[in-house]
Amino acid sequence: MKNENIVKTNKHFFDVVISGGGLSGTLMALSLAELTKADGSALTIAIIEASPVLKNASLTYDDRVLALSHGTAGYLEEVGAWQFLSSSAQPIKQIHVSDRGHYGKARIDAREHKVSALGYVVEMTLIGQSLQRALNEKNALANKQNVQWFAPDTIADIEWQKKEVNIHLSSGESLSTNLLLGCDGAQSACREFANIQVEKCEYGQCALITNVTTEQPHNNIAYERFTETGPIAMLPLSHGRCSLVWTLTPELARQMRELDDVAFKHQLEISFGSWLGAITDVGKRDIYPLSLVQAQEQIYHRMALIGNASHTIHPIAGQGFNLGVRDVQQMAQLIASHLASQKKQKIETGQDRVNDIGQFSLLSQYAQQRKTDHQQVIMLTDSLVTLFSNSLPPLVAGRNIGLKVFNYFSPLKSALVNKTLGY
After folding, report:
1. Among 297, 275, 370, 300, which Cα is nearest to 332's?
2. Is the pTM of this model over 0.85?
3. What is the spatial distance between Cα 225 and Cα 281, in angstroms, rounded to a whole number?
4. Who contacts 98 (Cβ-Cβ below 8 Å, separation ≥6)?
């Protein structure tokens, strides 16, 4: 795709260019920031971000949150971000699953699986701040600025050459790189410029998201409550709050959003039940349409898609961001292994090696190694949506039997819990 109206300046070369400076893009830069090439120099990294770089954002009652798996928390610790986040992250000690009006129930306890927490719930703003702080600290400790931001800025055009990718920005800046990583979300510019098609499945559902305070303390229990109008997730949050994700039809979601606070709290209490007593406070309500979006290809010439640019899934099992974190982790590991191999060859032969981290063999490994994880998580979430959004008597009976079997059959429970833990 060519844009003839771009005013092109001198090109700046970077080993890696990351499109998108949100959570996935910043984590990707942080994961690569300490890697060095065969000559001992650090990788040079550019981040292109449409919004101004996050600075001193203040929290509100209504801040959106994410559920981080145990594996995600471990990776954030590995890259140096968890130390800035751990005190604010609310641990999930137990998960209670129930089917409203039916006997099926299941319980998952962190102690049974020998972990301190099954996961953590934390505001997205705090995650972003922790990643920024860790990235800034790594640069400062190394006494180098190998990560450069182009923000606010956007990609106006991409030219793929045999040995490099040329990226022209709306500001007039031009970047050149061996490897372009698309961490730019569900509306990925990288994906569109490469003409990578997506498969999209509309669920005919919306997620109504808000934060609430309840009469009884949540005691670090996460609730997944399946109802005739859609699943309700109630996740433990700091300061006695819970994060509510209520899946509804679009019409019902709009109705619930338009209710006054008293009426909304009443309707939520009816659907969720008395697990946490009365709903005493409710924040701003937002609605998000739900769909399954999968890129048909994960890689292109000298480019790979990461996170929501590759896959956007239903929030029913809280796995979307965690799946993207594993994309970042896999890509970082492959690049680190490639650079280590180049260093070893230089030591053995005494000759400089070409540090081409955008070569097809490396990107092909990434696509193959991520394929199974993507398929398993998408199958899990898609099956849960189908199973628990259907009121046909055979399916209702089957899912309640399934919950009972899951609750008491340890091998099945361990297999599923290990996947949701992020392993």
Report:
1. 370
2. yes
3. 20
4. 104, 105, 106, 223, 224, 225, 226, 273
